[in-house]
Automatic annotation (TrEMBL):
InterPro entries: Aromatic_deC, PyrdxlP-dep_de-COase, PyrdxlP-dep_Trfase, PyrdxlP-dep_Trfase_major, PyrdxlP-dep_Trfase_small, Pyridoxal-P_BS. Its cofactor is pyridoxal 5'-phosphate. The lineage of its organism: Eukaryota, Viridiplantae, Streptophyta, Embryophyta, Tracheophyta. This is Tyrosine decarboxylase. Catalyzes the decarboxylation of L-tyrosine to tyramine, which is converted to norbelladine, a precursor to all Amaryllidaceae alkaloids such as galanthamine, lycorine and haemanthamine, and including haemanthamine- and crinamine-type alkaloids, promising anticancer agents. The keyword Oxidoreductase does not apply. One of its GO terms (biological process) is phenol-containing compound biosynthetic process. The keyword Lyase applies. It comes from Dendrobium nobile (Orchid). One of its GO terms (cellular component) is cytoplasm. Keywords: Alkaloid metabolism, Decarboxylase, Lyase, Pyridoxal phosphate, Repeat. The modification N6-(pyridoxal phosphate)lysine is found at residue 315. GO terms for molecular function: pyridoxal phosphate binding; tyrosine decarboxylase activity.
């Protein structure tokens, strides 16, 4: 432990002394880069899911912050001994939990630039390049995704980089709400729709936006529809709300749900929402990235009729956290809801109305220069290679799916569309027993530390989720993961 006491003689060599000294920065940043490069080299050696107990860290660290500077060596040594054991290694090639967090060197370098410049681009004037680069890369991305031109700046729409999907949903819901309120609706009449597979981000957004809980609809999906939301079931809900005197406001349709990567029936849902003037948001947090490949683009067919579309580039598009890409057809609707105009931010550029002031497109005022990261990723790899990376992950998931299908003890529970496989073992017992057995298998796989997966319950069925897509994952890791899973099944179900 590197803590110093008041009586120690302070040797400040190796310590940080001037908060922005260029040479000090050079020296220590090089050490940090080496440290992180070594981490990437060794990350496969750690247990993927952290094995510490709650409260472990407080026991290891001093009660109070140090009064005197400590050396970077001492701090890094504590990172090694105290922090790394408490990490779940999202960058491990053996990480298959939740959805991946696909970091990359290019994104890392972009983050370095962004952190280095440390500009706060709330409006155009506060750093013109931050705003303009963001608008450019959002148009680039929109073209890669073949979004309709109405989502591009040239077509009257536009894109913004936010932190998370939760924020994107909240901002678009606020815009939809205020549009309705300005037409004379009462907030107690407004209804928000999703399915029972929609991410809980929608519920949180509805709560924050003041939508009465009794007006929040989670429409039931079925195994027969592969857990997709259909126009039929949405239509029933809309009709019953209208006859009760309520006003349908907002639908969040999901392409690639979090539990099972189900794909809501966007083309037919979009018809319905445009008929009823419902704001349609398409949440493709995970699967949106794949849609830059022509063979996957059909999954977002229908987005032409949506009001907004978002995906998380930090999930499966090689951008380190955080980076949610959001496009809207009507920036005006967003801005009406989110803009403020205090005296201390007034400037000529804003008054000229020739510029984007991104503070009016998001919750917070201050914002990071995130587009440097996305620009680095797009330029550093090129779109041809980005497509190949994504295809590689889908191929790995197909390999895994094939292995599952070959073993008669297992079943693939829902269709695999992208790089995530939902599967389980069959015990021949009742549902409760099967669920319990799968839960035990997953826990013993994860406790062993060689790989890490998480679970979902879909239509009452407990499934293990194998989410490929880690940047360092190769096919050999996927094959090894299958061996690890089978070994635990052999152990826990010896007689099957
Ligand atoms: C991960 C996920 C979210 C939440 O994303 P955040 O960026 O953490 O807010 C929302 N929707 C879907 C479909 C997701 O997979």
């Amino acid at each position: 432990m590197g803590s110093l006491h008041a009586n120690d003689i302070i040797d400040t060599t190796g310590c940080l002394q001037h908060p922005l000294d260029a040479e000090e920065f050079r020296l220590h940043a090089h050490k940090l880069v080496d440290f992180i490069a070594d981490y990437y080299k060794n990350v496969a050696k750690y247990p993927v899911r952290s094995q510490v107990e709650p409260g472990y860290l407080r026991k290891l660290l001093p009660e109070t912050a140090p009064n005197q500077p400590e050396s970077i060596e001492d701090i890094l040594s504590d990172v090694r001994s105290c922090i790394i054991p408490g990490l779940t290694h999202w960058m491990s090639p053996n990480y298959y939990a939740y959805f991946p967090s696909s970091g990359s060197t290019a994104a890392f370098l972009g983050e370095m630039l962004s952190t280095g410049f440390n500009v706060v681009g709330f409006n155009w004037m506060s750093s013109p390049a931050a705003t303009e680069l963001e608008s450019v890369v959002m148009d680039w991305l929109a073209k890669l995704l073949c979004l309709p031109s109405e989502f591009l700046f040239s077509g009257g729409g536009g894109g913004v980089l936010q932190g998370t999907t939760c924020e994107a949903i909240l901002c678009t819901l606020a815009a939809a709400r205020d549009r309705a309120l300005s037409r004379g609706c009462d907030i107690s009449q407004l209804v928000v729709y999703g399915s029972d597979q929609t991410h809980c981000a929608l519920q949180k957004a509805a709560q924050i936006a003041g939508i009465p809980y009794s007006n929040f609809r989670t429409i039931k999906t079925t195994v027969a529809d592969a857990f997709a939301l259909t126009a039929n079931s949405l239509s029933l809900a809309i009709d019953s709300d209208i006859s009760a005197g309520l006003i349908p406001l907002y639908l969040c349709a999901t392409i690639g749900t979090t539990s099972s990567t189900a794909v809501d029936r966007l083309p037919e849902l979009a018809q319905l929402t445009s008929q009823h003037n419902i704001w349609l948001h398409v949440d493709a947090a995970y699967a949106g990235a794949a849609c830059i490949c022509p063979e996957f683009r059909h999954f977002i067919d229908g987005v032409e009729l949506a009001d907004s579309f978002s995906f998380n580039a930090h999930k499966w598009f090689f951008n380190n956290l955080d980076c949610c890409c959001l496009w809207v057809k009507s920036p005006t609707a967003l801005i009406k809801s989110l803009s403020t105009n205090p005296e201390y931010l007034k400037n000529k550029a804003t008054e000229s109305k020739q510029v984007v002031d991104y503070k009016d497109w998001q919750i917070a005022l201050s914002r990071r220069f995130r587009s440097l990261k996305m620009w680095m990723v797009l330029r550093g790899y090129g779109t041809a290679n980005l497509r190949q990376f994504l295809r590689g992950h889908v191929r790995m998931a197909k390999v895994f799916e094939g292995l599952v299908r070959l073993d008669r003890r297992f079943e693939v529970v829902v269709p695999r569309y992208f790089s995530t496989v939902c599967f389980r073992v069959r015990t021949g017992g009742d549902e409760a027993e099967e669920n319990e057995m799968n839960r035990r298998i997953l826990e013993s796989v994860n406790a062993e530390g060689k790989i890490y997966m998480t679970h979902a319950v879909i239509g009452g069925v407990y499934v293990m989720r194998f989410a490929a897509g880690g940047t360092l994952t190769e096919e050999r890791h996927v094959r090894e993961a299958w061996v690890v899973i089978k070994e635990q099944v052999d152990k826990l179900m010896p007689n099957v």
